Amino acid sequence: MVVPALLESLRVWLPELVLSLGAMAAMLAAPTAVGAAAGRRAALATWAALLLAADALWQVQGLPSGAYFSGLITVDALGHLFRWLALGVIALVVLMVVSSSDVSRGWVGEYLGLLLCVGVGLMAMAQANHLLMAYLSIELVSLSSYALVALVRDARSSEAALKYLLFGALASGVMLFGMSLLYGMTGELSLPGLQGALRTLDASSAGALALALTLILAGLAFKISMVPFHMWTPDVYEGAPVPVAAMLSVGPKAAGLALLLRFAQALSPAWEALGPMLAVLTVLTMTLGNVVAVVQQNVKRLLAYSTIGQVGYLLIGLSVRTTVGLEAIFVYLVAYLFMNLGAFACVTAVCNESRDESLDAFRGLSRRAPALAALLTVFLLSLAGIPPLLGFLGKFLLFGSAIEASRVWLAVAGVVNSAIALYYYVNIIRQMYLLAPERAGVLQAAWPLRLAVGVCGLATVGLGLFPGSLLEWLRAVAAATRL
Amino acid sequence: MPALLLIPGLPLAAFVILILIGRRLPPPVAGWVSVGALVGSCALTWAIGGDVLHGHRPHLQWPWLSAESGFWTIGLAVDGLTWLMLAVVTSIGTLIQLYAIGYMRGDPRCSRFFAYLSLFCASMLALVMADHFVLLYAGWELVGLCSYLLISFWFEKPSAAAAGRKAFITTRIGDTGLLLGIMLLAFAAGELHFDQLDAVRSALLLQHREFLPTVISMLIFFGAAGKSAQFPLHVWLPDAMEGPTPVSALIHAATMVAAGVYLVARTFPLFTPQSLAAVLGVGLFTHLAAGTIALTQTDIKRVLAYSTISQLGLMFTALGLGAMPLAMFHLTTHACFKALLFLGAGSVIHATHQQGLAHLGGLFRAMPVTAATFLVAALAMSGVFPLSGFWSKDAILLTARHEQAWVFWALLGGAVMTAGYIFRLYLRCFHGPAPTTPTAVGVHAQESPLIMTLPLMALAFGAAAVGLLGSPVSHQFFHLFGLHEAHEGLDLAMLAVSTAVAALGAWLAWTVGVQHRNLVPAAARPAGAALYRLAAHKYFVDEWYDRIIIQPFLRTAERLSRFDLRVIDAAVDRAGLTGWSVGQLKNWFDQRVVDRLVNGTAQTVQRLSRLGRRLQTGVVHHYLLVLTAAVVVLSACLRWF
Question: A171–B612: do the CB atoms touch at under 8 Å?
C-alpha cells in the first residue's frame, strides 16, 4: 500500500529529483577537469538537468492533483505555475552565471549546483502542504543562497553573506516559533489539518493565534523583502555577484508569495485579521523601495530597492485576496520574471566589461551597444509600467484588482509610486542615451547573456502585445486556486 | 497554412530590410532584395494555384480582440477571385520591378524607391487576401499611402508634390465613403467577414427591404470609384503620371487602380439591381468620356492614363451588367497589356527624355523591341483576334448585346475610340515623321538595356496569350469562379465586327492623327472644333472643381480668417490684457506658494530618500533590532486593534 503511493509521489516529483541529481552532477563534474573545461562540464550537466526537468514537468502536468508524500506536498495548478516560474528563473540565471566575470571561473560547478538546489527549494516551497515541508524548503533556499553569496570570497561578499545569514537565522527562528505556537494550539502540522483545527479553536486563544500569524508572516516577509523585514536586501545585493542578486530578486520572491497564498488560504478565517496591517505594509513597502531608490548611485543597490518597490505592487494582489487579484499577481510575476532578469542580464553585461557598478558605467551605452541599450530601455520601461509592455499589463491588473475590491487608496498609492519609480528608471535611460560615453569601444556581450537578454526582451514585448493565451492560462490557474 | 502568411510577408520583410539598411546596400542589391521577395510570393501563389482551381479554399484566421466575442478576427483567405488578383499582382509586379532596376539605375534614392514598392506589394497582397472588411480597409489605406509616396517620389518637382497631394485627397474622399459603408454594414448586420456576405444580404433584405443594401453598396462603390478613378473622382489619375513610369505601370495601371474593381467583385452579393444600374451608368460614362479625352492628349503617359480610366470604366460596365467574372477577366488581360504599354512608354522616355508626342516619332528603327512589344499591346487593347483583349472585351460586348442593346452600341463606339487613341499614340511615336525641332533627341535614341526589354517581351507574351485561358479554346479561367458550363463558342459575327471596329479606329488614327487630314464635313467644323477643345481640356472638370469647390472653400477660409482677425482676435486681445493682470497676480502666488509646494515635495522625497538611506546603517545589529522590534510592534497592533 505504502510502496505504490510512494512511487506515485516520486513520479510527481520527477522534476525535483532530476534537478537534485543535476545539482550533484554539476558539483561533481567540476573536479573531473581543470580550468575552463570544468565549467563547461558543469554547465553541460546543468543544462541536461534543466531540460530533463522541464520535460518531466511537462509530463507530470497531466497527473491528478491532490496530496502526495503522505500529505507533505500538494499538486495543483498553482504549484505547477510556480514550478515553471522557478525553472525559468534558474535557467535564465544559469545563462548569466556562465558568462559573469563576478563568478570566479574555478567555482562555476559549485555555483551551478547550488543554483539547482535553490531551484529544488523554490519548487518545493510552491508545493508545500505541511509546516515542516514549508520550513525545510525555505531553509533549502536560504542556505543555498547564503553559500551563493559567500562564494566570491572577497571582503564585501563575505560581509554580505554574514549579514544575510544572521538576519535569515533570526527570521527563520521567529517563523519556527510561530509554527510551534500553531502546533501547540492545534496539534496539527499539515495545512488542511490546521484549517480544520483552527475552526474549532475557542476565543481564548485568539491572542496566541495572532502572535503565531505575525511570526510566520515575519519569516516569509524576510524572504520576499517586505518592509520592515527588507533591511538585508540592498547590502546583500551589493555584495553578491550580479547573477546571484538577480536570482534573489525573483526566485524567492515568487516562491515566498506562493507560500503566503497557501498560508492565507489554510489559516483562512484568522488570516483575515491581518488584512489592514498587510495593506499598510504593502503601501510602506512600495513607498520605501521607490523613494530610497531615487538617490542610489550603485546600480545593484538601485535594483535592490526597485525590487522592494516591485514586491510592494505584488502585495496589492495578496492584500485584496480576490480571484482577480490572484490573476494579477500571476501576470505580474511572469512579467517581473522577464523584465527584471532581463535588466539584470544587461547589468551583468555592463559590469563584466567596466568593473564599475555605479550608474556612470551606463553613460553613452546607446553608442557602444545600441541593441543592449534598447533592450535595457524596454526592461526599465516595462518595470515602470509603460504600455504596451508586459509590465504595464500586470500593473494594470494589480491596480484594477485593488479598485475592484474597493481599496482605491491602494491603487492610488501604487500609481503615485509608479510616478516616483519612473524617475529613477528613466534616469538610467538618460545616462544611456543622452550622456557621452566614459570609455570608447564597442561593448560586446557574451552569447549566453545575449540569449538571456533576447529571450527576456522577446517575452516582455511579445507577451505585452499578444497576451491572449498567457492570460487565458493564468486566469484558469487563478480560477482553480481556492482563496 | 504559413504559406498564406508568407505571401504578403515576404515583400513586407523586404520593405523592413530596405527601409532600415537600404542606404548601406549598393543600389542594384536593393532592387534585387525587392524582386527576390516578390518572386517568392509569386512562386507561393502559383504553388497553391492548383488547389484553388480544384475548389480548395485555404484560410488562415486568428483572433484579434477576443475580449467580447469572436467578432474581431483577422484572417487571410484565398478563393478563386483572390488567387487571380494574387497571380496578377505578383507576376506582373515581378516583371515591373525587374524593369525598374534598369529604369531607376543611378537614382540617388533607389533603395527608398524599392522599399516603397515592396510596401505597396505587401499591402496590396494583404488587401486582396483579407477575409474581413477591416483588414481590407487597412490594406486599402496602405496602398493609398504608397501611391502617394511614389507619385511624389521626385518631390523636388513641385508638380510631382502637388500630384501626390491631389491623388491622396481625391482618393481619401472615396475612402470616406467606403469607411461609412463598412461602419453601416457593421451596425446593420454585425458581420464583416466576406464569406458571410450572402447570408448578410438575405438578412438585410428581409429586415430593410432593398434600401439599406443599396445605400451600403453605393457607399462601397464610391470608395471603389475613388481608387479606380471613375467619374467624378477620376481627376487624380492623369496627374499621378508625375511618378516614375514603373510606378505608373504597377500601381496606376495594373494593380492598385484595379482594387476598386476587385472590391466591387468581392462584395458583389451586396449590390442590388439599383446600385448595379448606378455602377453601369458611371462605368459606361467614364469609359466613353475618358476615351474622347485620350484621343486629344499629347503626352504619352497622359494618353495611357485616360486609357486606363476608360478601360476601368469598361470593367465597371461589365460589373454593372452583372457579369462579375467577365470584369475580372478583362482586369487580368488589361493588367498585362496596360503594364506593357506603360513599360514601353517608359522605355521611350528613358531613351529620349521626351514624353510629348510633338517631340517624338520614327523610333521604330532605333528601338525595335520596344516598338514591336508596344504594337502587340496596342493590338491586344484594340481587341484584335486572337490577342487577349479580344477575348475579354468581346465577352463583355456579347453580354451587353444579350442584356441591354444600347449598352452594346455604346461599347462599340468606345471600341472605335480605344483603337483610335492607341494607334494614334503608336503611330506617332514609332512611325510618323521624326521630329525636326532642335530639342528632339530621338535621332540618338537607343534601345533600352536587356533588364528592361526582357520584362517587355515577357509581358508581350502575356498580352498575346493570357486571353486564351478564358476563350472557348480553354475555359480554365472561369473555373476559378466555380463556372464549369461550356462557353457559348466563338461568335464569328462578333469576331468580324470587332476586327472591323479595330481596323476603323486604326485607320482614323492614321488619317486624322498622323496625316492630320480633317474628315469632318465643312458645315459641322465649328461644332467639331468646339467638341475637340472640350475634350482636349478634359471637359473642364478640374476647372469646375476649382471653381465650385476649391475656390469657394478658400474664399470661405479667407473670410473666416478675417473674422478671426477682426472679431475673435480682438476679443482675445482684450481678454489677454485682462488675463495678463490676473497672471501677474498668479505669478506672485505661484512663486510664493505653489513653487514652494512643488519644490518642497521634490525636496521632501529627496530628504526622505536620504533618511531611508541613513536608516540603512550597514550594521547588522541594527537590522536585527529592527526585525525584533517590528515583530513586537506588529503583534501588538494585531492584538489591540
Answer: no
